[in-house]
Fold this sequence. Notes:
47% helix
Amino acid sequence: MRADELHGVIVPITTPFDLETGDIAPVALRSMVRDLLACGLQGIVVAGTTGEGPLLDGEEQARLVEWLRDIVPDDRWLIAGTGAESTRATVRVTERAAAAGADAVLVRAPAYFGPALTPAALAGHYLRVADASPVPVLIYNIPKYTHVMLHESVLRALADHERVVGFKDSSGDLKVLASFRAAAPRLRAFVGSGSLFYPALELGADGGVLAIACFAADRCMDLYRAFRAGDRRAAGALQERLTPLAREIVGELGVPGVKAAMDLVGLPGGPVRPPLLPLDARQRSRVADLLAGAGLKAAA
């Protein structure tokens, strides 16, 4: 697939686990992806933040791609999260994902040695990963969890690399998104915050990699289509309904909240992997109320 086909709504899927064994549940995984792609999404990300990627081992990450390669059509994107703490490990995970059939990789910044990770160090890391990657690379800025904020100079250093095709900014700050676009205008720009989807599109983003699409895919697609059709009023109204879901379910409750919401709308959310904890009864009730308020029907 060409980089100019990278746009729209991409869903960073959750990873369903067997309640008894804790292993990945491939039947539920494949069923979930079929249902989500039927909504018109442009692609999926496996082993990302929402997919509990840091809690998966290398074999599990590759198996996710293998289990889904025949489910994801050729005109949709199958993207694998491949961030790791060393450049060497990131390259190996990236190569393994490509060999398993990934169309592209989404690479978060390393984090453990954060204070030592200057813009020059991070630019060097990404350049070496891009040099070695058999597939296109998207840069992933997720400071909420990595505690590393990518500087625009990192994007500038990568702007002309033939393997680097885009970035996902989950900083929650539109100024950061705008600075990344200005530093690397060739790259495809994706926002990672569902509460900022519409304003990000107004700023020129090509789409969103949105956890909220795990349980509100149709609404996300409706917003994107309205925007592309020039109906700013409809897009803005849809954003108003999505924002509370994005802020509270995704932003505040994280992966456990997303999985609970999926359960409630009839998709296989299921358990989280320890050390994460499931929602308590009060939190789950709040998620149900938020979904009802947005007009999302609970499963029968």
